[in-house]
Amino acid sequence: MYLDNAATSYPKPERVYEAVLHAMREVGASPGRGGYRRSLEAGRILFQAREAVATFFSVSDSARIIFTHNATSALNLALQGTLVAGNHVITTSMEHNSLLRPLYALRNSGIELSIIPAGSDGMISVDDIRAAVRVNTRMIAVSHVSNVCGAIQPIRQLAGLCREAGVLFLVDAAQSAGYLPIDAPGIGIDLLAVPGHKGLLGPFGTGLLYVAPHVPLTPVIQGGTGSHSTAEEQPQVMPDSFEAGTHNLPGIAGLLAGIDFIRDQGLSTIFQREHVLLTQAELLLRAIPGVTIYGPEDPSARCSVLSFTVSGVDSSLLAAELDHGFAVSVRAGLHCAPLAHRTLGTLPGGTVRLSPGWSTSCEEIAFFSDAVVQCVDKIRKSA
Ligand SMILES: Cc1ncc(COP(=O)(O)O)c(C=O)c1O
Question: Are residues 184 and 164 in the same domain?
């Protein structure tokens, strides 16, 4: 039983596998690299996918969507493509290493960085962020939903603060896209980094960055785009400018099918189902002696993941027992977000994190919680 959809979603809807195979077997060619029919068909799939992504995030001009390899490459582009030495960036203690590490690297080249601690429930305070704004602040960068405890951050209020302060707003939607509705322009998000392979149900190696029209972005990779071939410089055309090299067409075709699936099911239906599963898991886990659940008390302030520890039981050992004894896949440890664990008080052992997906059933959650009881029992007896 796979309960690690926060890492990458599995299984994918059947139509995703079909679309990947179709792009590889029937289409075969690269988009924008030839005038023959196969290449034109590849270009059509690429365009449709860009349109589907744009519609999904309420973006009117799909040229503002840049395809990337994952959320990490989208975050790197957003940061390296906008920041220059002397800029100040505000982020929080709840961030993933995919946001923190590029920022640490930029700090070595003259970017000033403030990391604002969240509360012990993982929630960011807008007032604390406001208090950190300086004259040279260029950007506020936060994750929409914590990948450690599921805390849903107040991105509307943060967007308002960014407008007031005249700074860019970068949102890491790795754990919210495909679960929560995101009207990027309506909220006031300037840069939205999204993985294609998690909640959007696309294949590995897919991701995207939305860039609002007023945001100046510099390419971080130069190369062939299939356009303006005589120019020595990278073409300054969206999105070609940022998509040098051959596209992951099978992945993008699968992503298009994943978004189609979500549209057919309805985002709110998917969110509601997931909420029911997480609520059930929480109730069952809380009944186990020694269990602590992390994140905001109110379950409606959390989504996507549920993190817990059992007192006296090593989280990694528990996850290993769940895997070996019951074929349950959950992630344990620090979830690539060390500062978030410090904030939540779960260093050094981290937590066990479960994240159900669109195909997870209530029966599976009940099986999972029984398995936890048995594994905890076994670990305690052998201690
Ligand atoms: C909050 C957050 N940001 C960024 C990432 C990186 O995503 P990707 O693996 O698509 O690069 C993850 C992955 O788990 C994440 O949870």
Answer: yes
If you measure from the C-alpha of residue 377 to the centroid of ligand 1, how many angstroms do you get, rounded to a whole number?
33
Domain count, the chain: 2
What is the predicted pLDDT for the residue at 232? 85
Which range of residues forms the domain containing residue 321? 267-382
CA dist., res. 31 & res. 351, Å (int): 43
- Residue 9 resides in a domain: no
Instruction: State mean pLDDT over 99-105.
Output: 98
3 falls within a domain: no
Catalytic residue chosen out of the listed positions 149, 162, 303, 336: 336
What radius of gyration do the chain's Cα atoms show?
21
- How wide is the angle at C-alpha 295 spanned by C-alphas 289 and 299, nearest 5°? 85
pLDDT digits (tens, 9 = 90+) for 340-361: 999 999 999 999 999 999 999 9
The answer to whether residue 4 is domain-embedded is: no
Per the CB < 8 A criterion, the answer to whether 154 and 126 are in contact is yes
Specify the pairing of strand 306-310 against strand 291-293. antiparallel
The CATH number of whichever domain residue 209 belongs to comes to: 3.40.640.10
Beta carbons within 10 angstroms of residue 281's beta carbon: 24
The reply to whether ligand 1 has any atom less than 6 angstroms from the CB of 304 is no
Residue 336 phi/psi, 5° resolution? 55, 25
Look up residue 241 and give its DSSP letter: G
Cis peptide before 219 (omega within 30 of 0): no
Q: Helices 267-286 and 249-265, interaxial angle, to 10°?
A: 80
Which residue's CA is the closest to the ligand 1 atom numbered 15? 174
pLDDT digits over 7-47, tens only?
Answer: 999 999 999 999 999 999 999 999 988 889 999 999 999 99
Q: Which atom of ligand 1 is nearest to the CA of 336?
A: 14
- The reply to whether 375 belongs to the active site is no
Q: Are residues 71 and 116 in the same domain?
A: yes
Hey, what are 295's tokens? 């994140």
With a 6 Å cutoff on the Cβ, whether 172 touches ligand 1 is yes
